[in-house]
Design goal:
Strands 3-2-1-6-5-4 form a six-stranded antiparallel beta sheet. A five-stranded mixed beta sheet has the order 8-9-7-10-11, with helices on both faces. The relative contact order is 0.08. The longest helix is centred in the middle third of the chain and has 31 residues. It has two domains: about 220 residues, Beta-Lactamase; about 160 residues, Alpha-Beta Plaits, CATH 3.30.70. The protein is built from 15 helices and eleven strands. It is elongated, with a radius of gyration of 26 Å. β1 and β2 form a beta hairpin. By secondary structure, it is of the alpha+beta class.
Length: about 400
């Protein structure tokens, strides 16, 4: 090799090492899993980084026997790619600035690709390219149309992927997921040198993601009620505030339910605290089945629970509350229910934003007032919040 070519190779190697060093420093900016994965994907897809058009991370899920999509970044068309990178170039955005973009977008980036990624879940026993990489522990690339045609994969079909690479993300002792990349817009071939760069990045990224997963698990446990596994009171307060802000942004209604177990003190006194705990767990499980996927259920405290109903107006909230109340009563009275020794009923208070209140504290107060009304009216019923003048008309 002549001197000029050798010097060019050395310069290229130095640039690659410098880039990996900068990306490594970037990954130290956060321990939050979603932020970390976003930064990794930004480094993989940005012009300042490795420059791939699209990238996605898939992680082994909690079951340990399937790979699930976590996050994807990239345009849905070449035109969108040009617009995105023009914006980045014009505003001289550095890699450090991408986290600010993520926060300002409230995590809603590249929705179409990201939704396709998050829908994808494949068993580790699947013979396709994603699960096979986990077994092999080494990167793979598909760069010819004939090779791509041999792969039957719903995710690749949905995102119109022709040529791609998949690289394992390695933790301390095992592979924890894979990184997917392709060049939908530019159609640039993925080279062996790029795979080598990706593999070095993924060695660092895998360890960082593994640490973030562990941290995320610890944070998640601190936010949950240990008996029922539901979100606790503090987390409910946080999510309610975020949900109200989202309702403002989207111009949609939001309602909350507060409900508690009727005569729970007597239940405990007669049957003991162990049976009381079983009853609370039963209520949590039955309520979760009665609610929509978008609803959030929390243990508010003691025998009291809370529900956030995004997008539900007052009438819809009352309907959901009645369904919840009825299911808990029916399931607890069923002869097949081994979790309770007597029928359990609940009383529910309903309040809606912005009709009943314009701030979080007042909204909770309104729901609590409605719950108190349900208790006074004989229990095992749903009551919506009524302003004082309406209450006077409805004795």
């Amino acid at each position: 090799m002549d001197t000029a070519k050798l010097q060019a190779e050395l310069r290229k190697a130095r640039r690659q090492l410098q880039l990996l060093y900068e990306i490594g420093n970037l990954m130290r900016l956060t321990i939050q899993l979603d932020e970390l994965v976003f930064l990794i994907l930004s480094a993989v897809t940005s012009h300042e980084g490795l420059g791939f058009n699209r990238a996605a991370v898939f992680l082994i899920d909690d079951s340990g026997d399937a790979l699930s999509g976590f996050m994807g970044i990239g345009p849905k068309s070449p035109e969108e790619a040009d617009r995105i990178w023009r914006h980045i170039d014009e505003h001289h955005l550095q890699l450090e600035g991408f986290l600010d973009i993520y926060h300002k977008s409230q995590g809603r980036m590249d929705a179409e690709l990201n939704e396709a990624v998050r829908r994808y879940r494949v068993p580790l026993s699947d013979p396709g390219p994603f699960a096979r990489i986990l077994e092999r522990g080494s990167a793979a690339r598909v760069f010819s149309p004939s090779a791509r045609r041999e792969i039957h994969n719903t995710f690749l079909d949905e995102i119109s992927c022709q040529a791609f690479a998949v690289v394992p993300l390695s933790g301390k002792e095992r592979v924890i997921g894979v990184l997917f990349v392709d060049n939908l817009s530019t159609r640039d071939p993925i080279t062996r040198e790029e795979i080598s760069d990706l593999s070095m990045l993924c060695d660092h990224a895998g360890l960082a993601i593994e640490n973030a997963v562990a941290y995320s698990g610890a944070v998640d446990r601190s936010r949950r009620d240990p008996l029922t596994g539901l979100w606790n009171h503090a987390r409910f307060q946080e999510i309610l505030l975020q949900s109200m802000q989202a309702a403002d942004l989207l111009k949609t209604p939001l309602s909350i339910l507060l409900f508690d177990v009727d005569n729970f003190k007597s239940y405990n006194d007669q049957l003991g605290h162990q049976q009381g705990d079983k009853a609370l767990k039963f209520v949590a499980e039955a309520a979760a089945r009665a609610l929509r996927k978008s609803d959030l259920l929390a243990r508010y405290g003691g025998e009291e629970f809370a529900v956030i109903l995004p997008g539900a107006n007052r009438d819809e909230a009352v309907e959901i509350a009645e369904k919840l109340r009825s299911i808990i009563e029916q399931r607890s009275s069923s002869a097949s229910s081994a979790q309770t020794v007597k029928t359990i009923t609940v009383s529910i208070g309903v309040a809606s934003y912005p009709n009943d209140a314009l701030d979080r504290e007042k909204l909770i107060y309104c729901a609590d007032t409605a719950l108190y009304l349900a208790k006074n009216d004989g229990k095992n019923r749903t009551c919506r919040y009524l302003p004082p003048r309406e209450t006077a008309k409805n004795p």
